[in-house]
Amino acid sequence: MRPLAHGLGARADLPVPVWMAQYAAALVLIVTFFMLARFWESPRLQEPYRGRPLPMGLQRLIDAPAFRLALRLIGLAALLVAIVVAAFGTDSSATNPAPTWLYVWFWVGIVPLSLLFGPVLRAFNPLRLITQGIALVSGRRDRDDFRTLPAWVGYWPAAAGLLVFTWLELVYRNPARPQNVLTFILLYCVVQLAAAAVYGERWYAHGDAFEVYSTLIGRLSPFGRRPTDGRLVLRNPLAGLASVPVEPGIVAVICVLLGSTAFDGLSRTQWWQRLSGQTTGLAYLLLGTAGLLGMVGLVSAAYLAATRQNPWARRGQKVAVERRFVHALLPIVVGYTVAHYFSLVVFQGQAGYLLASDPLGRGWDLFGTAGQQINYRAVATATIAIVQVVAILTGHVLGVFIAHDRAIADYTRSHHRLRAQYPLLVVMVTYTLGGIALLLGA
Amino acid sequence: MRESRVRSARWWLVASVLAVALAACGGGDDQDQATATAAAGSATTEVGAAGAQTVQVTVAGTKVQTAERRVKVPLDGTVRLEVTADRADEVHVHGYDRMVDVEPGKPAVLEFTANLPGVFEVELEEASLKLVELQVQ
Prior knowledge:
The complex is a heterodimer.
Chain A: E1 11-12, H1 18-39, E2 51-53, H2 56-63, H3 65-88, H4 98-106, H5 110-117, H6 120-124, H7 126-138, H8 156-170, H9 178-199, H10 203-207, H11 209-218, E3 223-225, E4 232-235, H12 237-240, H13 250-268, H14 270-277, H15 281-308, H16 321-324, H17 330-354, H18 381-410, H19 414-441
Antiparallel strand pairs in A: 2-4, 3-4
Chain B: H1 2-44, E1 46-47, E2 52-60, E3 63-65, E4 70-73, E5 77-85, E6 89-93, E7 98-102, E8 108-114, E9 118-124, E10 129-136
Parallel strand pairs in B: 2-5, 4-10
Antiparallel strand pairs in B: 1-2, 2-3, 5-8, 6-7, 6-9, 9-10
């Protein structure tokens, strides 16, 4: 049976009395909404690239080919070390650091780094480096040498990749076993490199699940690159969200992220554990798969109902309405990610460097941390609960801000503006109540 | 215009029913959980003379018998874990990393101070069988 969370980490958070948090959160959202309706009358968050340009010297350094190459070499080194440790270290996540690196340092670390600096994974992506190397050797360097990804594909490959990864993390029985980590990393790299061999390096921006995730979160970073002249600007991070692309599959990417978090909460409830405790083997996997797909489906259905079925929001739009508002969900994704993984990072995250002293299980002590135990008292349980509630609530309040700003930008008639947002507000309140119940009450 | 009004009214009805149902669901779960643990708590975990809280688990095949799936333990209290299994295996308290060998039919006993807050899993290691969770707070 899998350990409590993510197949990693020996500890789960204490449940919080949820009803109080739920009432408070619902109230805050509704009050925010009506305050905005009253006082926020012209759009202010629709110009993602308006801001103060960074000093030219800094920009030159960041854009220098040698600097870009250095970042990707670091990425490549990290990938190779992870593969070697996963392959030749011990076969247990209690002594092998590779699973903690993948599920905690990499997967969770993407979020704060991208929030701070923008699309970091694109900058570090070792697969891009390999593809460039192959292109250099084979002489296929032109865009015309590769097939063009059809427009309807959009971000669907990334959505699928994220679903596979979260399935491995949350449904599969032994996600943290180093052998499984190794298999996943190798298979992922092979599939990505093969796709890039057909579609060129452009593939990664749409098909590499982790890069797409990082770039998406990076829209909420204080740094942006002006498309007109390539200048890096310091901007209002909330305005940056207006640059979230509206291509096909973008709603799916965000709903997979939200739905998988919801499923992780669900799978920790006593009710689910009683249910899944009675199943073994294939039945266990099928139940988990159904649960994951079910939660992604629920989250998507609620969002699509609120945007598509909204008669006022339909008028005069070139881009499907659900894609015009999907960026409002992004702060919510970040909020849940913080709530969901905060304690895993502060506790299990320690294992990533404690175990790194003896990565291959040979009795080494490279960094003097061998044999040390995770400090489970590094952060108080009350602090964890507060961080979780505040993160979820902040995410949703920002979501209401963003949706409001987009509504007043898209609709000119004041009653349309407000009505377009009512269904979304209902969805956000529903997500908040459900999210708090699932993540904190289990 | 009128048609869209009617549609929106219908939408609102559905949405609010959904929201209320969801909120009610969350509340209901909580109560169930509270009563369940309260009822089971009196039946199973007893505080011994030495002040240790005893948690008994019996394993037969893949069936795990405990009074509660999650036992509440006060922080810094003493826990006495008694596990009887139908095979030789190892009992592992995650997080605390306490282990004890268990022989077929003979109860294995593990006593320790619960000094780390959180929810921790107790597992029969070889069989990968979850025995019980300790909720230390």
